[in-house]
Amino acid sequence: MVTIGDVLAVIGTVVATVVSLWAMVIAVSVLFGERTARARERIEHSPGKVTLLGAVIALVLGIIVAALLNQPHGLLKLIGWVIYLLLLLTGAIGFSGLAALVGQRLKQMEPSLTPYGALSRGALFCVLATLVPILGWFVVGPLMGFASLGAGVEALLTRSHAVAPSQPANTTAS
After folding, report:
1. Are 32 and 96 in contact (CB under 8 A)?
2. Domain boundaries, given as residue ranges, for the chain
3. What is the pLDDT of residue 174?
């Protein structure tokens, strides 16, 4: 028997998860701006490649993490948790890049949006898209997760294009 308290607990959990995931995307975008921009570029220019890369990484490291977490030795469990948390951080950077891409496209549609407003809406749309029953849970969510992980890995492993510092003007008189 389900009581109203059970229903409210589920609703509260979903709302809290959506709000905290939205806030995490905004925070990661602000804290790791360059990495987020690289992830956005990767998703924009090669979405299939990053999605496939993310799926392979999730499968391989997911099996390794599951095996490590089921070991009785505490050090192996710790290594499993560290790998898992690194995967989540990498996925968060990639997901922030995806939200930035959605925000950029929203800004093209509505030029009056501020950069924060575009990013905020992009993050909200990405998070809410995963809540759609069946399609969001089993298609959109996993595809966004794989793309985020792949883009996050590429954003972390590639180097930015180094820009040569400009030469100061010669102010000495000869």
Report:
1. yes
2. 35-157
3. 47
